[in-house]
Amino acid sequence: MDNCCSTNSQNFAQIDKSINLLNAVSEPNRLRILCVLSKMDICVCELAEKLNVSHNLISHHLKVLYDASVLDKRRDGNQFFYFIKKVWKPRIKHLFDFVKIS
User: Fold this and answer.
1) How far apart (Å, rounded) are the C-alpha atoms in residues 82 and 71?
2) Which domains does the chain possess?
3) For residue 9, how far is the Cα from the chain centroid?
4) What is the pLDDT along the chain (102 residues), one digit of tens a residue?
5) Structure pTM?
6) Are the beta carbons of 36 and 42 closer than 8 angstroms?
7) CB–CB of 19/53 below 8 Å?
């Protein structure tokens, strides 16, 4: 039987993790955020301006992506700069290729 069809608890945990990730990237604003972050690290205020979305909404979407372990952040003074984790960069590129986002 293929691993994806097995009924062991480890497989169920991986499926749950995959569902959380797919839910995190399935929202349009989050895809737009990932598109920007695939090109540069950026702070919340600049990202909100660039995407013409409120600071609060950008922060919410960043938290979802951060909680899904797709993003990381670094502090510079009183601002946080978000970036795609190194392990996710090629996967995000594959996702964009799959859905035809450049």
Assistant:
1) 7
2) 28-99 (1.10.10.10)
3) 26
4) 456 666 677 777 778 777 878 888 889 999 999 999 999 999 999 999 999 999 999 999 999 999 999 999 999 999 999 999 998 898 888 888 887 765
5) 0.81
6) yes
7) no
Largest Cα span, the chain? 53
**Three-point CA angle 83, 84, 87, nearest 5°:** 140
Residue 50 tokens, joined: 């660039």
- Cβ burial of 38 (10 Å; 0-12, 13-18, 19+) is middle
CA–chain centroid gap for 94, Å, is 13
Which residue(s) pair with 3 in the sheet? none
Q: Dig out the tokens for 4 from the structure.
A: 């994806």
Q: How far is CA 66 from the centre of its chain?
A: 7
CB-neighbour burial class of residue 62 (10 A; exposed 0-12, middle 13-18, buried 19+): buried
Indicate the residue type of 80. F
